[in-house]
């Protein structure tokens, strides 16, 4: 078996073989061992608040339909007609009691049940008595604090067990609002011409913050003359099952609740009240953590929740080794007042997203990695060792423990597959 | 002194100049075309009339942020645009209205090509400008860019100014 990940704790060296970013066979193995078996983020429950609400979702390479059925349950239906396979729902989102496939006009209730079709006399009386002609639902759909996940493996452990210590960090984001979080409109659908694992790494990599995003921090410094020195400091932590977090202080404002001088004095008073409220609810220490610390969380394999200058969730999936599709969500407290929401959204857009001052530079870094991996034959290994020398329990946020946690889990899952000739589901 | 009445062609020439400045990476000069309250916005794809508090825009720049955007892109550390990409902007189907009023509205279709590292991406959509006269010159009060795309795939980003 070819060794892909070298985790040498004696030498404090961690290496990843670059073929994992370029090899088509690896992608097939990832689909079989990772995307077909891990919990994958599908969306937030506030995207389909009312009965009949639906939204098309691509998850793990599938075409799904997230729907709030008439019986009150939220389901993920495979968006394919049980008759001949055509995509049933063609609009990206909407509200409907019935879905109708246009090809032969079979129609389905919004829980997937076959409702009717033309030419019934051509079918036996007990047609669909076993429900095999209903739109099929993903068997496993579970949610945690409003974040919904699916799993294509019926034998998978529960979502809560899978999330392990990541739950605590999802809580810190969700606890910012007593009313709960909601997803904003305008989910950002973009792509990167690079391997998907590079974005997993990049999202929990504080080491690149200063060199890659210097222009952003220059702007922050200009906005806040009192900012003597941009500080990015904190801890890195393994959360189990491949999940990891970095928790740190940073020079930007946080809508709940760290004021920054580009915001109004009114907002400052508002945010002080917000902080007091957090102290009442959670005590001084946890309130300080919620309000003043930033967290970038990777939930293995392909969900990132960044609770930073705004809250974003991003999920990504490879259509080939060198190309991924990304969906970027923004989450905010339900019922947030307009001034506050505007400050939050401006904060988001200044750094994050395809039109931000930072995300496009990340995109470029990832694409340059991918481009230069055509030297893989001769230059074979990536180094992810930073901080090992300190001992993993002492990792700083600017160390690479977060990435090692991801890769250690990857190694466990892929090695299982390497025992087989070819990728098998 | 009589001031010659503004013509449709004057407005169109002004927009062609704007496109030229962007194509030539004269971004500070581009920013200088805006009024002190000028704005530059790109609403989410498929939601041209979205509210900026309820939906996430791609770009929602006030005057100071559009200046920051222009200046950032000229820096070597704006990695995504270093070395600069090659861009070509075309404006078509230009409709000018309100020539006689304080605020002139212009709608046009646009095609913006960007190539870098031998990858060509094309952005298409509709620009809506509000244009005013100040100190005898035309100036942009607002520029709104509605993308006519299904998603930012395969573009991946809006690193250039549209």
Quick overview of this protein structure:
The complex is a heterodimer of chains A (425) and B (162). By secondary structure, chain A is an alpha+beta fold. In chain A, 28% of the residues lie in helices and 27% in strands.
Written overview of the protein:
The complex is a heterodimer of chains A (425) and B (162). Chain A is built from eleven helices and 21 strands. Chain A has helices at 24-35, 159-163, 166-174, 196-203, 209-212, 214-223, 265-282, 284-292, 338-351, 359-372, 401-418, and strands at 5-8, 13-17, 40-44, 53-59, 62-68, 74-78, 93-95, 98-100, 107-109, 114-116, 140-144, 147-151, 181-183, 188-192, 233-240, 243-249, 294-299, 303-307, 311-320, 323-333, 381-383. In chain A, strands 13, 14, 15, 16, 17, 18, 19 and 20 form an eight-stranded antiparallel β-sheet that branches. Chain A has a four-stranded antiparallel β-sheet with strand order 6-5-4-7, with no helix packed on it. A three-stranded antiparallel β-sheet of chain A has the order 1-2-21, covered by helices on one side. In chain A, helix 1 packs across helix 11 (401-418) and helix 7 crosses helix 8. The longest helix of chain A has 18 residues, at 265-282. Chain A is globular, with a radius of gyration of 23 Å. The mean pLDDT of chain B is 96. In chain B, a hairpin with a 2-residue loop joins strand 4 and strand 5. By secondary structure, chain B is α+β, with helices and mostly antiparallel strands. Chain B has helices spanning 8-23, 27-31, 63-73, and strands at 34-42, 59-61, 86-97, 104-116, 119-134, 137-147. The chains are: A alpha+beta (425), B alpha+beta (162). Chain A binds chain B through residues 92, 184-193, 212, 214-215, 219, 323, 325, 330, 338, 341-342, 345-346, 348-350, 353-355, 357, 359-361, 363-365, 367, 371, and chain B through 42-47, 50, 52-60, 65, 68-69, 72, 75, 77-80, 117, 119, 150-159.
């Amino acid at each position: 078996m070819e060794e892909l990940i070298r985790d040498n704790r004696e030498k404090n060296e961690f290496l990843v073989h670059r073929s994992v970013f370029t090899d088509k066979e690896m992608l097939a193995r990832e689909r079989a061992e990772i995307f077909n078996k891990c919990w994958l983020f599908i969306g937030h429950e506030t995207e389909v608040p009312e009965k009949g609400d639906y939204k098309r979702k691509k998850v793990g390479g599938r075409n799904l339909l997230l729907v709030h059925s008439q019986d009150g349950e939220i389901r993920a239906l495979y968006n394919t007609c049980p008759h001949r396979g055509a995509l049933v729902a063609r609009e990206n989102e909407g509200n409907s009691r019935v879905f109708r496939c246009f090809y032969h006009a079979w129609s389905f209730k919004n829980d997937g049940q076959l409702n009717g079709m033309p030419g019934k006399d051509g079918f036996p009386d007990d047609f669909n008595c076993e429900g095999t002609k209903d739109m099929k639902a993903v068997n496993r759909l579970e949610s945690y604090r409003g974040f919904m996940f699916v799993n294509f493996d019926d034998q998978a452990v529960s979502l809560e067990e899978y999330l392990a210590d990541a739950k605590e960090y999802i809580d810190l984001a969700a606890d910012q609002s007593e009313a709960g979080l909601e997803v904003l409109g305008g989910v950002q659908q973009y792509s990167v011409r690079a391997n998907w694992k590079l974005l997993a790494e990049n999202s929990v990599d504080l080491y690149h913050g200063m060199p890659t995003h210097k222009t952003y921090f220059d702007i922050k410094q200009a906005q806040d003359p009192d900012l003597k020195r941009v500080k990015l400091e904190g801890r890195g932590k393994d959360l189990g099952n491949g999940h990891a977090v970095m928790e740190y202080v940073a020079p930007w404002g946080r809508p709940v609740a760290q004021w920054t001088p580009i915001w109004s004095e009114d907002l400052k008073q508002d945010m002080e009240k917000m902080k007091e409220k957090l102290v009442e609810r959670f005590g001084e220490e946890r309130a300080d953590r919620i309000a003043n610390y930033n967290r970038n969380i990777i939930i293995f394999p392909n969900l990132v929740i960044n609770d930073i200058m705004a809250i974003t969730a991003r999920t990504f999936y490879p259509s080939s080794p060198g190309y991924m599709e990304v969906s970027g969500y923004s989450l905010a407290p339900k019922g947030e007042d307009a001034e506050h929401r505007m400050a939050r959204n401006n904060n988001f857009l200044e750094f994050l997203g395809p039109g931000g001052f930072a995300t496009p530079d990340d995109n470029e870094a990832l694409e340059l990695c991918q481009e230069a991996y055509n030297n893989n034959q001769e230059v074979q290994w990536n180094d992810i060792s930073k901080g090992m020398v300190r001992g993993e329990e002492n990792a700083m946020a600017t160390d690479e423990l977060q990435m090692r946690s991801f890769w250690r889990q990857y190694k466990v899952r892929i090695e299982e597959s390497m025992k087989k000739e070819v990728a098998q589901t | 002194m009589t001031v010659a009445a503004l013509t449709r062609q004057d407005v169109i020439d002004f927009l062609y100049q704007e496109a030229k400045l962007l194509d030539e990476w004269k971004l500070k000069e581009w920013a200088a075309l805006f009024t002190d309250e000028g704005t530059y916005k790109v609403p989410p794809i498929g939601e041209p009339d979205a509210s900026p508090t309820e939906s996430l825009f791609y770009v929602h720049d006030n005057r100071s942020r559009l200046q920051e955007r222009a200046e950032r892109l000229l820096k070597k550390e704006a990695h995504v645009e270093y070395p600069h990409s090659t861009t070509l902007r075309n404006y078509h189907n230009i409709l000018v209205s309100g020539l006689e009023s304080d605020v002139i509205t212009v709608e046009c279709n646009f095609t913006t090509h960007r190539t870098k590292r031998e990858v060509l991406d094309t952005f298409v959509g509709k620009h809506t400008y509000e244009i005013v006269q100040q100190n005898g010159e035309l100036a942009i009060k607002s520029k709104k860019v509605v993308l006519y795309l299904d998603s930012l795939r395969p573009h991946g980003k809006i690193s250039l100014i549209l």
